[in-house]
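Supplementary material to the annual report.
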Amino acid sequence: MTEQVYFEDVKEGQELPPIKMTPDKQQLVKFAAGSGDFNPLHFDENFPMLKPMGLTENIVHGRFKYAQVGRLVFSFAGYKGRVKNFGVSYRGMDPLNNEIIAGGVVTAKRQEGGENLVDLDIWTQNADGKKTTPGTATVALPSRG
Amino acid sequence: MTQIYAEDIKLGDEIPQLRKRCSTQQLVQWAAGSGDFYQIHYDKEFAQGTGLKGLIVHGALKNAFLGQLLHDWIGEQGQIRRFGCAYRGMDEPDQDIHCRGVVTSVRRDGGKNVVELDVWTEKPDGKKTSPGKAIVTLPSRP
Amino acid sequence: MADEFEITDEMRSQFGVDTQPWEYEVTTTSVRMYARGIGSDDPIHYDVDFAKGQGFRSIVAPMGYIGTPVFLPGKNDPTFGFPRREGGPRLNIPFKGLLDGGTETEYLDVICAGDVLEETSHLSDLKMRGKMLFVTNEAVYKNKATGKVVAKQKLTSIHL
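Predicted assembly:
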């Protein structure tokens, strides 16, 4: 865990330290175990649904990429901060064994209802820089005050 | 489920078979349930890299199937005292696994009806892949 | 088949119709498994004493994990685990392929191991984009012990 970040220290346009991950089949099987989503699309290369979907290999769960963005915002908020909301849409598929980079940038700072809120653009991108999972998040941060 | 009683069985009886056929999905669900994430059970390339022909069924899953075989047979009033098996052969996903058992001894012991069995899993060609033994107790007819 | 599909008023009338509640469990084992599943090594998801030391009730559920639905054979989907409940919207969707379209989570409280949640959901949107049908469901999770809503999640699936 990195050091706690405070509201005063955050600037618009600030980028979050990215989280990089290259999920292999074992990682996705563990994710199936954790999430309860046992769709063979993610681990069985002989799964009959691959072909009709135009796929030649297993793909990463959308929710796995969502969880990587979740790690990013949770880690940014720190234990004293709170993730208020985060959402993404799934715009592209990522095959197994390819690097996924979860990234984010601060788009606004505001105070509302006694909370110090930071708005973010968040995403995962592939090695070519294509953002396959774009979205937004809001976290509440503690104040130095 | 109808209860089976000690009076109903004799030496050499075969208990009702349990047929299993594991999909890769079931092997992944077993990995989830057991916490054993070794890739030889769901990652074909990995399995072949270790010298195997392809994916194989977890030994512990076959052991659990034998547990299920006994559990289904003894009914609610029976008890499994012990059971175990050795892993002598490999089973593949998407192929039948016959779970079987034969009564080898029936006796009264400490006021209980104690039944011993040979249990095993078997491939379609008859090869026993997980031979083992079990001891259960069964109720007497009321 | 998808060519003939049209969103009808009858389908729209199902918006907002709540499903029966279903229990979701957040346990120490399930939180750790989810954390392993996402590749996190943050002790806040693993070490109960550490999490308590940071002021939490127990280990903290990773972001996006709002418990595991109680699984009853015949009542839950064998692949995805979600409950198939009485009541709630009924759509006959004549599409074959299914993709995940998006996920949004709103947190009203921190979710920790030991929490037992009650989830109800409703259909909130249907949209055709080209030949694809976008179905959005919204789920609300209450802590069973306190009755307080702890999270809301919006899930969009794409049928094609």
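DSSP finds two helices and five strands in chain A.
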